[in-house]
Amino acid sequence: MGQFYCLHCDRYFSSSAVMDEHFRTKRHKKRVKMMQGDAPHTQLDAELAAGMGEPDNGPSLRVRDVAMGL
Q1: Would you say the pTM of this structure is higher than 0.90?
Q2: GO: which molecular function terms (predicted)?
């Protein structure tokens, strides 16, 4: 069982030499770059998707009341 783990690639390695060799590969560097980018979703995105964010009820009712003369 490998004792050395690459978090970015989700791989185990049998020795530190093999893991160091892996760190120099194009595949590993590409994954590291991808993981350092923007987060794909935020907590606000999740809440809005679940209907838990601030409601968007359209224009306020006061505008309609003014138009009706109230």
Answers
A1: no
A2: nucleic acid binding; zinc ion binding
In whole angstroms, what is the distance from residue 20 CA to residue 12 CA?
12
What are the E-state strand segments in the chain?
4-6, 11-13
> What does the block give as tokens for 43?
């907590």
Average pLDDT, the chain: 82
Pairwise CA distance, residues 26 & 13, whole Å: 17
Q: Bridge partners of 11?
A: 6
Would you state the torsion angle of the CA atoms of residues 46, 51, 52, 57, taken in this order, to the nearest 10 degrees? 130
Sign of CA dihedral 39, 12, 25, 16: positive
- CA nearest neighbour of 19 among 30, 33, 9, 34: 9
63, two tokens: 């505008």
